[in-house]
Amino acid sequence: MSVAGIIAEYDPFHNGHLLHLRETKAFSPDGVVVVLGGNFTQRGAPAAFPKRVRAKMALAAGADLVLELPLPFSMARAETFASGGVEFLASLGVVDTLSFGSECGDLSLLQRAAEAVDSETTQAGIRRLLQSGMSYAAAREAAVCERYGEAVAAVLRTPNDILGVEYLRACRRLAPALESRAVLRQGAAHNAAQPSGRIASASRLREALFAGEPVRDFVPAKTVSVLEEAVRAGLAPASFAGLEAGVLAFLRTAPDALAHVPDFSEGLANRIAKAARTARTLEELYDTAKTKRYAHARIRRAVWSAYLGVRESDAQGGVPYIRVLGFSERGASLLQTAAGRAAKPMALRASDIRRLDARAERMFSLECAAADVHALLRPRRGVCGEEMTEPLIRV
């Protein structure tokens, strides 16, 4: 079999994603598996589109099987996000290639960067530079540059290449047999403010959706109906604005919750708790707490992790089960094959998880909480319990 895996958020799925998916399908004729981030994202914010809407987009565009990356991995720093996704693909037992987008498109250079970051020399340099007050990202880049040169360090400046390096590091640790393919990113950059031709970044599309602007020129014809139906139904775009007073109230009255979040530091927790005492909006809190060392994304992840009850220990021990969101006819065949090969329990229904161990139950309870909170952030607010009732997506 020749099956590729993609780790993605697709918030929303756009023409650039379609190009990546098509190229991946060209070298993986037996199927493409997508590990999809859930209702809260790696950037530390609620997804604009619910995970099942994004799963429908991926399947409509040609993906064969969509799995859910659990909350402690989907809303996490790049290293944890990548490790969870790679472990997921490897444990499925049918994926032989990891495909990811890249600004440089140079797999050899990305592999050199992954090896450089993993080296003890670099790790020692990172620790030294962190003590001087640098952010982790700046310290990592500087430490790599010192020992391995500018060309290798340069790939640690662009978002997709940074994730690519983390994917390769995770493969070295968790899935050495998994082949990797770096697909050159085309069109607008990751956070570009303006489109390039018919390709716009996901962040630009989210801004357009919040402003009520049309986006269909930048979304594949096969998925635009899914996107527009979600908007008409009031499922998207989700925004934290309707809940920010509650989040601020939580941080003001329960600051100790910050002591248990992933990527914890006492300095960060103190800055967030102090900022919460005067901030009137979450954006004001993020700006007040931000320093050279503590970037916006890290602050956002800490705030939402505290609010949702995600702890540092939740990502330890890896992914406890494989949650299926949807599949095509070919994806159904992949599932049948995976059933006899998977290294972790397969979960097609909530009841499948309920029969597993306490750690799986804990992970699922976090997903339920995230879904219930996300339902309040949508234009048309939803009720609790969709994790227990939403059916599998079949196309």
UniProtKB/TrEMBL annotation:
Keyword match RNA-binding: yes
Entry EC number(s): 6.3.4.-
Catalytic reactions of this protein: cytidine(34) in elongator tRNA(Met) + acetate + ATP = N(4)-acetylcytidine(34) in elongator tRNA(Met) + AMP + diphosphate
Class of the enzyme per the UniProt entry, highest EC level: ligase
One of the GO biological process terms: tRNA modification
Pfam families the record matches: HIGH_NTase1
This protein's GO CC annotations: cytoplasm
GO molecular function: ATP binding; ligase activity, forming carbon-nitrogen bonds; tRNA binding
Binding sites annotated in the UniProt record for ATP: 7-20, 101, 160, 185
Entries under SUPFAM superfamilies matching the protein: Nucleotidylyl transferase
Subcellular location: Cytoplasm
Top-level taxon of origin: Bacteria
Stored InterPro entries: Rossmann-like_a/b/a_fold, tRNA(Met)_cyd_acetate_ligase
Keywords, sorted A to Z: ATP-binding, Cytoplasm, Ligase, Nucleotide-binding, RNA-binding, tRNA processing, tRNA-binding
Cell inner membrane recorded as keyword: no
Function, as annotated: Catalyzes the formation of N(4)-acetylcytidine (ac(4)C) at the wobble position of elongator tRNA(Met), using acetate and ATP as substrates. First activates an acetate ion to form acetyladenylate (Ac-AMP) and then transfers the acetyl group to tRNA to form ac(4)C34.
PANTHER family given in the database record: TRNA(MET) CYTIDINE ACETATE LIGASE (PTHR37825)
Family affiliation: Belongs to the TmcAL family.
Record protein name field: tRNA(Met) cytidine acetate ligase
Species of the source: Candidatus Fimenecus excrementigallinarum
